[in-house]
């Protein structure tokens, strides 16, 4: 993938890459994209929580608790591996 930037933005990216400890401008851009992905994931998670809070309350079954535990373990395992 190639991205065209005006020279002022190229200079900015180079300076920011150096200032943030990135070895290349590409690494800096990858970090920005990763941060953006995380922000979108967090927003989606918060929207799910809000939707859940607005749904009618009911008692969870043992099967539902088990499913929730499995899902959370899977999510936590993936997060630990990605660090």
Short description:
The chain is built from three helices and no strands. 76% of the residues lie in helices and 0% in strands.
Helix content: over 70%
Give the overall average pLDDT. Answer: 94
Number of alpha- plus pi-helical segments? 3
**Principal-axes shape call:** elongated
Q: Taking Cα atoms only, what radius of gyration do you get, to the nearest Å?
A: 20 Å
Topology as a string of helices (H) and strands (E): HHH
Number of domains: 1
Give the termini separation.
25 Å
How would you characterize the overall build of this protein?
This protein is mainly alpha-helical. The chain has one domain (7-82). The protein is built from three helices and no strands. It has helices spanning 7-19, 25-53, 62-82. The protein is elongated, with a radius of gyration of 20 Å.
SSE topology:
Blueprint: H1 7-19, H2 25-53, H3 62-82
Helix pairs in contact: 1-2
Primary descriptors:
83 residues, mainly alpha, elongated
């Amino acid at each position: 993938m190639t991205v065209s930037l005006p020279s002022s933005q190229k200079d900015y990216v180079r300076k920011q890459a150096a200032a943030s400890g990135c070895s290349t401008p590409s690494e800096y851009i990858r970090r920005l994209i990763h941060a953006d992905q995380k922000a979108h994931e967090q927003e989606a998670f918060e929207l799910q929580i809000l939707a859940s809070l607005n749904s009618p309350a009911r008692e969870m079954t043992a099967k539902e608790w088990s499913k929730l535990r499995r899902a959370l373990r899977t999510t936590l395992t993936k997060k630990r591996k990605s660090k």
